[in-house]
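sorry for the late reply, my laptop died twice this morning and i had to redo everyting from scratch. anyway the thing you sent over, i finally got around to it. pasting the sequence first so we're on the same page, its 669 residues, then the predicted structure underneath. double check i copied it right bc i was rushing
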Amino acid sequence: MAEIDSVVAELSALKEAQDFAGAYELVRKNLAKIGKVLSPEGVCDALKGATKERKYLSFLDSAEFGKLPLEESFAKLEKLLSFEEGALVLSKAWGLGKVKRIDDFYQRIVVDFPVKKGHQFSYAAACDIIVRAPEDHILVLKEADRAAFDTLLQTKRGEFVKRVLKSYSEPSLNKLEEICIANGFVKKEGWKDFWNAARKELIADKCVQIPVKRTDPIRVRDEAEKYGTSWFIEFANITDPGQILLKVREYVAAKKKLDEETAKLFAGRLAFALTAARKSNDALYARLACMVTSLGFAEPPAAEMRAYLKERSRFVEAAAGLPAGETGNLIRFLADGDESKALIYKHLPDLCYAAVQEVIRELGNDPACRAAIGALLKLPNAPATLVALVIGKYDDYKAWDELPPLSTLIMHAIALGESRQSGETLRMQNIVHRLFADKNWLKAMFDHLAAEEQRLVFERLQASLTWESASHHLILTRMTGINPALKALVVKAEKKKEYPRVTSFRSFGLKKREYLKLINEDMPENIRKIEFAKGFGDLSENAEYQYAKDEQRALMQKQTLMQADLEAVKPSDFADATCDEVMPGVMVTIQTEEGGKTYAILGEWDNDVEMGILSQRAKLAENMLGKKAGDKFELPGAEGEVKFGTVKLISPLTEAVKNWMKLPEGVQI
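ok and here's the structure:
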């Protein structure tokens, strides 16, 4: 008891000396003891008495001493004190921000985020939504020392990923990719190359455990595994085939000795894993088969595992599911003779890009391989993977006599770049787009072409209607820069007309009614839910409270977006629309292969399928805007080859559509 009295006496002295920092630290270290003799309100009064600074007093008022348990109130105070001006903070929604100002009068914390300057949080919201950023967080490094951040990102990718993993509590590979792209660490198209480089370093790192499934967390240990008796006991009892492979790979990567007893254990567990993966996960089966072979185990026989992967061409799907760095293992495993190689060549059009790349790397010197690739590239619809690969590294293949002329390959690439694609073919299309955007690659390709071939390539690309307009124009300009004679072939395109952001009175009124309901009903109701949920106890384990706070964040974001839309879009009756061309406020009759149809093109928020009303932002409407009667336009949604429709007639809006546009009864603007 004397010890507690001594602490209370010291607290009283610090209060008299107006030493808030000392009083706060004393309470922090002796909270349990002080709580035995002082009520939460008493602790709050003691701390208030130690300062006259309004900021600290406002923090103490907001910490709810007496309403919450003492430990919770003090934790809230501790968090508020960490939000000093200039401090870096983290938000799940906004990322890293810097505290700009503490507004002690309105009890708000103003934070500058990269995407939202001057964002205001109430003290209560700040405690729920933001946290002080740890000094070792990857975003703090980026903010505080950009040179060190860039060096780590570019030269030590494994270490960089470890830093990200620790900063975000060991996310899965899928989540890691999302984090790196969302924060601008890596561009989406560069993720695969980045991860392959980082993965090589991480595999050699004995403290990192990369899971088989992309949805499982990547573990980072403080020290390397010792591989003692407990490790082997745990391994012997694993039944998940993916985990078995992971443990064997981990052991092999650690360069541990594979003695007779360990080899026997590994062989048995791998055989079990192969049986479990059979007919359920071909990619995992392929990885296990390659591991069994690399370790020199006789069982299961390699011929048996190859036969399974070749049956029903399972190796095609297996290759698509493998990490890029392991695809070569599968190709080497399968290519055990001329018959197996012929099967691989037969399925070249079906294989993923990484697998095709490995086939050429491993078997490119085989005349049969070159003949198969040459024959495929001479087809009218050459495989997208081969087109992207060969033109991307043309200097590596230009000596192949089996290939068609480069001009043919480039024509294939242009066709691939303009079609609407999905899956693996979409990835190849993106590769082609990046190649054409690379001025050095474009110059190198043109240097290989004769003048007449350059002309044909230029005219073919210029006639392509579905390349993104800005990049399409830039590529054509670069081509004319390489060969000025091509300027004579340029066809000037009309500049796409900009239309004002408008919508019908009906749609504007309904949108505003929705906005008013949001701010007058939904948001107040959410606040009531939050206050009600607080009564259920510990907020950290209070599901109702967390759901209500999540809903609040979503409502605030929705309110911001709707307010911006209502300010930008104006109501209109489209009375100034003319029928000279397709524009918002007209009826359009079109003709397609399926027949004719009439649409009303209106404003941004107008849409009614039954009445044929299209928003000007709808893809079909956008493709028709600016067209005149008799003009062709692209039909959206077509797969493979691009399809077109024709504008047959442009006419004024019908009375039915005009009545639809009117402000509904009871709705106000």
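The first strand starts at residue 88 and ends at 91.
thats about all i looked at so far, will dig more tmrw
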